[in-house]
Amino acid sequence: MIAMHPSLATAANPVFLGYVYTCLVLSLNLLALWVSSGAVRAHSGVAINPEDGARYGAPVRELDPPAVARILRVHRNAEAAIYPFLILGLVYVLVGGHASIAIPIFAAFTGARIVHSIVYLRALQPWRTLSFAVSLLALIALMVAILVTVL
Amino acid sequence: MIAMHPSLATAANPVFLGYVYTCLVLSLNLLALWVSSGAVRAHSGVAINPEDGARYGAPVRELDPPAVARILRVHRNAEAAIYPFLILGLVYVLVGGHASIAIPIFAAFTGARIVHSIVYLRALQPWRTLSFAVSLLALIALMVAILVTVL
Amino acid sequence: MIAMHPSLATAANPVFLGYVYTCLVLSLNLLALWVSSGAVRAHSGVAINPEDGARYGAPVRELDPPAVARILRVHRNAEAAIYPFLILGLVYVLVGGHASIAIPIFAAFTGARIVHSIVYLRALQPWRTLSFAVSLLALIALMVAILVTVL
């Protein structure tokens, strides 16, 4: 069991505090995408589950309409990047990573992911590829930072 | 590196202990859904991978049969809610959250997710929407609790 | 807030060090699968997003070609196993798990997942089912180890 010191001011550990805000913003990003996919499906007049089709008088389809499928692709992409980043980010906090390295990586990843969600939803290229590349580089930088710290 | 005190009794930190049980139950929820999707597909007589079709003499399809597709939707929904919750839950433990706030949130989320899995599998509305709403509210409450603690 | 002791040598906690390397290798596994799915789609001459179809002069389809769909199934399978494992693995570190239990579980899971990715991509049975079973057993062993430690 880890020793908890609730009296320790959060300001004493800027890496962890930066992680906490990163975690909150990226969770909001995921939730906003996910909840909106359900809202757009409800407005599309198409149901995926037969019980919803019966309830709302909507035709049942095996595949979502294009607008919903797009939001779900954005959400899937966000999940595939954000879950590893948040787990690795906490690892970097726990190995005692430096704020001067952690904060820029956390900020770059978070900014790039928010931009990626927006431009993917709006079908804007090459911005989708560019923001994806930035988020991927931030993820790789985080892995390198962890490796350098524990070696 | 964090300081580890293995001699610290778990009972000394009820928030973390509550988190550990939450984590175990929700992981079981995910695993049960995931493994059952494979079992139901195996019994459906349809294969998604050509090598499985050749092995079991089953026709190969691009899309899963409806019963399997439903379980996979339930599993996907569980993943999209549970991974952020478990990461945020650990963050709440680490910021020194209070048991009087953490335990009700952990319990509400866990209960709502188990109910959601069962009623989604059985196509029961409005229970699916209701249990989903409760789990979403618990997730938002957890984010607010973290924010209030670090501010 | 947890107490951070950056001066604590990593070697003082082999369970956590083992977890860090496990986390890095499994994240690489996930990233390699994910990035290659995009690369193979780009070479397949088919687009899922209309803006990519317009950009590259590629026909737009609702479903990915078989080679891409396979990589995405491998990635989805890796995600569904690895995210719970990494969260539970960190929990085992934090409850003060023993290295003699943690290291074999971490190694078995990591090895089985890498083998699973390779044999799934190459459509090799029964190796896919066998490596999947080993990774599932390691995941269950980890849950039991956590439960035994906190009880």
Q: Helical region count of chain A? A: 5
Shape of chain A: elongated
- The arrangement of helices and strands of chain A along the chain is HHHHH
Instruction: Report the mean per-residue pLDDT of chain A as an integer.
Output: 90
Query: Which band does the percent of strand residues of chain A land in?
Result: under 5%
Q: What pair of chains forms the biggest interface?
A: A-B, 37 and 38 residues
Helix content of chain A: over 70%
Structural class of chain A: mainly alpha
Topology, number of strands of chain A: 0
How big is the Rg of chain A? 19 Å
Question: What's this model, at a glance?
Answer:
The structure is a homotrimer of 151-residue chains. Chain A is an all-alpha fold and 151 residues long.
Notable characteristics:
homotrimer, 151 residues, mainly alpha, 75% helix, elongated
Q: What's the SSE blueprint?
A:
The structure is a homotrimer of 151-residue chains.
Chain A: H1 14-44, H2 50-56, H3 66-94, H4 99-121, H5 127-150
Helix pairs in contact in A: 1-3, 1-4, 3-4, 3-5, 4-5
Please describe what this structure looks like.
Three copies of one chain form a homotrimer. Chain A has helices spanning 14-44, 50-56, 66-94, 99-121, 127-150. Chain A has 151 residues and is an all-alpha fold. Mean pLDDT of chain A is 90; it is low at 1-9. Chain A is elongated and about 60 Å long. In chain A, helix 1 (14-44) packs parallel to helix 4 (99-121), helix 3 (66-94) packs parallel to helix 5 (127-150) and helix 4 runs antiparallel to helix 5 (127-150). Chains in contact: A-B, A-C, B-C.
